[in-house]
Amino acid sequence: MPRAKSLGSLEQQVLEFLWQQGPSTGEAVRSALSKDRPLTDSTIRTVLRRLEAKQYVNHSVEARQFLYSSVRQPRKVAADAVRDILKRFCRGSMEELLAGMVDHRVVEASELRRLTEKIEAREREGRDK
Asked: Which of 13, 15, 22, 97 could form a disulfide with 90 if both were Cys (CB 3.0 to 4.6 A apart)?
């Protein structure tokens, strides 16, 4: 599957709704998201078509209605976004990304140490099998 294009803020909200609610009609998406800001049916249909073109969602037809479902899981979308950030801003260096996140207090060094310990434990488990 080719790498998907990045998401706009409304596209992200629609995708999050589908992750939480599962397969939904465009009307269900519009109704839920309209609580924060007014949205027209055509706006939601356009966003859903764009998400489908970007390969984040697909649709099926049930009772003459389109039901939209997410194709990609949240962790996969997040991993793709991080890969894009690495490529665009960090010359592909995970070390540069993480150092910048520590420098700018996005993540604490202690969190990275805990993650390092988890990674090392998984590697040990893999060798023990």
From this structure: 97
Amino acid making up residue 1: M
Longest dimension (CA), the chain: 57
What is the tally of structural domains in the chain?
Answer: 2
- The domain in which residue 30 lies consists of 9-70
Query: CA 28, 33, 35, 40 torsion: positive or negative?
Result: negative
Mean pLDDT by 10 residues, the chain (129 residues): 72 96 97 92 96 96 95 92 92 93 92 94 85
Q: At 27, which CATH number?
A: 1.10.10.10
- Position 3 in a domain: no
| Residue 15 sits in the same domain as residue 65 | yes
- Say what the pLDDT of residue 79 is: 92
Closest CA to 5 of 72, 84, 75: 84
Decide: pTM greater than 0.85. Answer: no
pLDDT at 1: 43
**Cβ proximity of 44 and 26 under 8 Å:** yes
